[in-house]
Design a protein that fits this description.
The protein has one helix spanning 15-29. It is mostly helical. It is elongated. It starts with 14 loop residues before the first helix and ends in an 11-residue tail after the last helix. The relative contact order is 0.11.
């Protein structure tokens, strides 16, 4: 069974998208008192 990959405007398509994802992740994680110490 062959399925086509999912594509949409929210897919990661390059370095800029990865940077946005990582920056958004760290922005949220660093605000969390339980997770922040793990990621700093």
């Amino acid at each position: 069974m062959h399925t086509e990959p999912h594509t949409s405007e929210s897919d990661i398509n390059g370095r800029e998208d990865v940077e946005l994802l990582v920056n958004a992740f760290y922005e949220k994680v660093l605000k969390d008192p339980l997770l922040a110490p793990i990621f700093t």
